[in-house]
């Protein structure tokens, strides 16, 4: 985390985050929510992801596969968390690409990513965001311990 | 939490939850993610919500208002959490209604709901789900402490 990190406060409760800080926050967590749109209706599912080198990797179950295969256009991966007296949220918009080549699957498997849950993983997905936005928001005193 | 709660395990890692259990889980948290669709592209934002009596109330900032006012069709509110050796996720789909009548706004204000963040709240929204689904998924041993 940068030393000169600006933090929001009561007078200025919302700060927009720059791209570097968004990547840093994404790299520090593996739980996000993937939102997709299908026939102009949204759907959203929790997913494990791994962010590194301006690229996001997801490891999906059959449930995720069925949802993303019918997804049209762009998807959004959202992650959020708490740090000190603020909460942050990062949204990465882009299109998902399913990894299918044996070489790229082998490269991913060498990373030994550990999804949280025991559901069988059937596909790897890559999200290279075309838009990355983040906000940090001050937490009220009753939630600030 | 019901005494006879079924829990997922390695042999059967995903359990679908019934409506009562979904409501019980929603009532136990106030942080969710609201997914909307606009011109067939998804958007997702963290929101505070309060679930009670088969009804969900959201208290939105200007940022939320701008996103939901342009949202078309249905929205989805997703909440998730961890309990013991499983994680759960509940999705409530429906349409949002903005509360505008002074009597209904006064009734909500008597509930003294406390959003986490300091951003100014400019609207109350009600979501009466037309579809409520939930899953409980077993967590792998390396994430099971």
TrEMBL record, chains A, B:
Name of the protein in question: Pyridoxamine 5'-phosphate oxidase
Lineage per the UniProt record: Bacteria, Bacillati, Actinomycetota, Actinomycetes, Micrococcales
């Amino acid at each position: 985390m940068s030393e000169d990190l600006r933090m929001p406060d009561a007078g200025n409760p919302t700060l927009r985050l720059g791209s570097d800080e968004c990547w840093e926050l994404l790299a520090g967590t593996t739980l996000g929510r993937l939102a997709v749109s299908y026939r102009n209706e949204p759907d959203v599912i929790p997913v494990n992801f791994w962010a590194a080198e301006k690229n996001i990797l997801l490891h999906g179950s059959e449930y995720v596969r069925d949802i993303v295969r019918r997804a049209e256009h762009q998807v959004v991966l959202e992650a959020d968390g708490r740090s000190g007296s603020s909460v942050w949220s990062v949204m990465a918009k882009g299109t998902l690409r399913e990894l299918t080549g044996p070489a790229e699957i082998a490269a991913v498997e060498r990373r030994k990513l550990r999804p949280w849950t025991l559901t069988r993983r059937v596909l790897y997905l890559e999200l290279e965001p075309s838009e990355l936005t983040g906000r940090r928001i001050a937490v009220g005193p009753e939630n600030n311990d």
